[in-house]
Amino acid sequence: MNFGRRLSSLLARKLPVRPSRLSAGRTVASITFDDFPKSAWSQGGPILERHQVRGTYYAAGGFCGRTMDGITYYDEADLRELLAAGHEIGCHGYGHQPTPCLATAALAEDARRNDMFLRPFIGRAVSYAFPFGAVSCRTKRFYAPRFASLRGVHPGVNKGTVDLAQLSTISLEARIFSQAKVDAAIAKVKSGGWLVFHTHDVDASPTPYGTTPEALDWTLARVKAAGIDFLPMRDALKKVLPA
Predict the structure, then answer these.
(1) 104-122 vs 76-84: helix axis angle to the nearest 10?
(2) Is residue 176 part of a domain?
(3) Is residue 9 part of a domain?
(4) Using CA atoms, how far apart are residues 195 and 155, in angstroms rounded to an integer?
(5) What angle do CA 156, 161, 166 make, to 5 degrees?
(6) Which of 8, 37, 174, 187 has the most beta carbons within 10 angstroms of its beta carbon?
(7) Residues 228, 85: contact at Cβ < 8 Å?
């Protein structure tokens, strides 16, 4: 993320758009995959199944059935399979462009295209992740009324009062993955909170933004050993918000 995007994201974090108080004493975790490389399902899916975990796959409609820069992305059969297995499909934009770079009219058109793409599968997505984690105050305001939750890539756990228009996350990406950070995050939510993990591809030799099967397996086991259940983003939100 370049300096301009970092500054935009910093300013956006200082301006909560949908502040909400999470219920004290309720703890939950979510595992999410951005862009939806095919390996997140073909290799990541069996690991989730072994741990009886359901995740959220943020799909960019423009990536469906394509191979770009050596990465093969999901296809329509993958979407049907993961839905049948109880996972959630979230929205990641259609063109997968940094939202602060798009005019509001272009944001609306991109949202319309992805909504039309996902409609045959899920009707309407309720969870959104900003492409590249790039956020601005304007784009938070644009997307907040359209989705139940918006997720960025700012590191941290979600507890106490949070902004549902820019939820924090713990990265499992190979370039920055740390078992110590996962353990520290688990410790922070013992009294209540929402752990959201994110990555991209799952492979023995992942991209810098993906994770290995071993790291994914370790993380799921570690969190569950702490007595924390995993739920897709849409379901986790219902659990941590007051009735």
Answers:
(1) 60
(2) yes
(3) no
(4) 11
(5) 55
(6) 37
(7) no
> Is the predicted pLDDT of residue 243 greater than 80, yes or no?
no
CA distance 70 to 159: 38
Is 5 a member of any domain?
Answer: no
Q: What is the pLDDT of residue 30?
A: 98
Structural domain count of the chain: 1
Instruction: Give the chain's mean pLDDT.
Output: 95
The dihedral built from the CA positions of residue 42, 45, 47 and 49, taken in this order, carries a sign that is negative
Locate 32 and state its tokens: 């999410």
Q: Letter for the amino acid at 110?
A: D
**pLDDT number for residue 12:** 82
Question: What's the CA gap between 240 and 243, in Å, rounded?
Answer: 9
Q: With the C-alpha atoms ordered 179, 184, 189, 190, is the resulting torsion angle positive or negative?
A: positive
Q: In degrees to the nearest 10, what's the CA dihedral of 235, 172, 92, 90?
A: -20
Question: Do residues 151 and 32 touch, judged by C-beta distance below 8 A?
Answer: yes
| CA dihedral for 50, 52, 53, 57, sign (positive or negative) | positive
Strand partners, 88: 56
Residue 6 lies in a domain: no
Structure tokens belonging to residue 140: 């938070």
> Residue 74 has which token pair?
């999901």
Cβ neighbour number for residue 142 with a 10 Å cutoff: 18
Exposure of 130 in the CB half-sphere (CA atoms within 13 A): 34
Output the furthest CA–CA distance in the chain (Å, rounded): 46
DSSP β-ladder status, 193-199 and 27-35 = parallel
Mean pLDDT of 201-229: 98
Question: The domain spanning residue 176 has which CATH number?
Answer: 3.20.20.370
